[in-house]
């Protein structure tokens, strides 16, 4: 429906905290235009077309209309707006004081301070986007590489939603079939036929759900980063290799404090895979930090890692410490890097390949740039087996909430199939099918509750 619900009017500063060239105070709701009328001097905003930006001044009605700032005011009329409500955005000078003063004036003249994510929540409640799309908005804000961004954009475009809705529709059709057959029990073969239909449909839907679950591994990495530990004894070339990975792509993405994570995390972009380095306490200081990581701390890092890069010095024979690290990482997803191959090789390459598998070994000479390109490729291939291009258009599940619902939906279908196999009465099997339908509905928000919304949108930053 194009009509918006009758919510109160909310406002917040939508630009990041701190000083900048401009800041934006955003207002959304039925009183947005009434409020700006009271506090703006300039054009007649009632007469300006929608989606225009207008020069003028903000004044403070409670202070004899004292002029507060020179501004540009965007006017966006319902329903074609982010929230589907009337929206006003005040572009003011980006000072802390002036921005906060304007927000205060807006609040004293009829708006309420928005909760984190409340603008996006409105977009959801007013039917502009569904829940998985709302989550995509957050993912776009936090995206660390182009691939992460692409996956989130696809989700915002509604690809995942359409697929999930289609699965729900198939289930609904089946449930309808079942109803009909239950209503005509005198028809002898009804029960048998119904069971056949249910089984066929359940298998098909389960296949799609499993496909989506398969994408989650890559999707989650794109969203959260791949926890990576670079280990090896001193002087084998860890810092040099890290610096190669950094310098070639020059892409350190730093989380802005005040968004969802409170600690500063840094990522290395390796061909679209965001590597989140463990225990390096800031990539910029990595050179010093890595030095201090002894075997003991390596053990901890290895445990946390999704991927271990174990660096060995190929110009020396294996030491006891090397062997220990090889053993410690034997259960991890790992790449063993034989570095310093520009020098005469003393390490037994073949026996190492035998132990760790030849696909997991790579030779480099970091000092000469040799092999680091191949290393990047290997890292990327490890996580994007189908080739990284597959993220360009494919549906991808990226967050834990969606994954957990898909698992539940998958479980419900397993129950359906078990029931069919055991010859359970159709009306009982139907209950599990309905459960699956409900779980899928929670992904898109077709079925939701207030608690879920609070929990989900509170992860957003204020002003989004
Ligand atoms: P880390 O202690 O493991 O971090 O090792 P570094 O990256 O700090 O390197 C230790 C020393 O080995 C430095 O002098 C590097 O220049 C040198 N080094 C690193 N990689 C190579 C390489 O591929 N070949 C040669 N010959 N020297 C290297
Ligand atoms: Zn070093």
TrEMBL record:
Gene3D superfamilies: P-loop containing nucleotide triphosphate hydrolases, Probable tRNA modification gtpase trme, domain 1, tRNA modification GTPase MnmE domain 2
Superkingdom of this protein's organism: Bacteria
Cofactor dependence: K(+)
Keywords associated with the record: Cytoplasm, GTP-binding, Hydrolase, Magnesium, Metal-binding, Nucleotide-binding, Potassium, tRNA processing
Enzyme Commission number: 3.6.-.-
Record: residues binding Mg(2+): 239, 260
EC category name: hydrolase
Binding site for GTP: 235-240, 254-260, 279-282
UniProt cross-references to InterPro entries, sorted A to Z: G_TrmE (IPR031168), GTP-bd (IPR006073), GTP-bd_TrmE_N (IPR018948), GTPase_MnmE (IPR004520), MnmE_dom2 (IPR027368), MnmE_helical (IPR025867), P-loop_NTPase (IPR027417), Small_GTP-bd (IPR005225)
GO molecular function, one term: GTP binding
GO BP terms, alphabetized: tRNA methylation; tRNA wobble uridine modification
Binding site for K(+): 235, 254, 256, 259
Stretches assigned to the TrmE-type G domain: 225-384
Family, as annotated: Belongs to the TRAFAC class TrmE-Era-EngA-EngB-Septin-like GTPase superfamily. TrmE GTPase family.
Subunit structure: Homodimer. Heterotetramer of two MnmE and two MnmG subunits.
Protein name per UniProt: tRNA modification GTPase MnmE
Organism: Acetilactobacillus jinshanensis
Gene: mnmE
């Amino acid at each position: 429906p194009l009509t918006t619900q009758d919510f109160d009017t909310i406002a917040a500063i939508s630009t990041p905290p701190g000083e900048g060239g401009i800041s934006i105070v955003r207002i959304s709701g039925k009183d947005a235009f009434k409020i700006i009328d009271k506090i703006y001097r300039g054009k007649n905003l009632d007469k300006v077309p929608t989606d225009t930006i207008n020069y003028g001044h903000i004044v403070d009605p409670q202070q004899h209309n004292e002029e507060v700032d020179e501004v540009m005011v965007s006017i966006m009329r319902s329903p074609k707006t982010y929230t589907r409500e009337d929206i006003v955005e005040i572009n003011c000078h980006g000072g802390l004081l002036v921005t906060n003063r304007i927000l205060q004036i807006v609040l004293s003249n009829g708006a309420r301070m928005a909760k984190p994510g409340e603008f996006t929540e409105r977009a959801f409640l007013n039917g502009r986007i569904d829940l998985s799309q709302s989550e995509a908005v957050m993912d776009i804000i936090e995206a660390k590489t182009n691939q992460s961004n692409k996956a989130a954009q696809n989700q915002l475009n509604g690809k995942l939603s359409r697929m999930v809705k289609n699965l729900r529709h198939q289930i609904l059709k089946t449930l309808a079939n079942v109803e009909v057959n239950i209503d005509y029990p005198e028809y002898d073969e009804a029960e048998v036929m119904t069971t056949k239909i249910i089984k066929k449909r359940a298998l098909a839907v389960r296949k799609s759900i499993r496909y989506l679950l398969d994408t989650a591994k890559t999707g989650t990495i794109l969203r959260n980063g791949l926890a990576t530990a670079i280990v090896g004894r001193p002087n084998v070339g860890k810092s040099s290799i890290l610096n190669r990975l950094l310098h070639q792509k020059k892409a350190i993405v730093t989380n802005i404090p005040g968004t969802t994570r409170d600690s500063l995390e840094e990522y290395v972009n390796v061909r679209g895979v965001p590597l989140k380095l463990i225990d390096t306490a800031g990539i910029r200081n990595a050179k010093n930090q890595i030095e201090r990581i002894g075997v003991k701390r390596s053990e901890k890092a290895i445990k946390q890692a999704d991927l271990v890069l174990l660096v060995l010095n190929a110009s020396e024979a294996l030491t006891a410490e090397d062997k220990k690290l090889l053993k410690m990482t034997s259960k991890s997803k790992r790449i063993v890097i034989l570095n310093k191959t520009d020098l005469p090789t003393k390490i037994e390459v073949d026996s190492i390949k035998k132990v760790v598998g030849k696909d997991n070994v790579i030779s480099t000479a970091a000092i000469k740039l040799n092999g680091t390109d191949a290393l990047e490729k290997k890292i990327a291939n490890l996580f994007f087996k189908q080739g990284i291009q597959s993220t360009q258009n494919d549906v991808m599940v990226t967050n834990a909430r969606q994954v957990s619902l898909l698992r539940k939906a998958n479980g419900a279908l397993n129950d359906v199939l078990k029931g069919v196999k055991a010859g359970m009465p159709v009306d009982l099997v139907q209950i599990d099918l309905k459960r699956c339908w409900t779980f899928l509905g929670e992904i898109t928000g077709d079925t939701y509750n207030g608690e879920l919304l609070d929990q989900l949108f509170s992860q957003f930053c204020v002003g989004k």
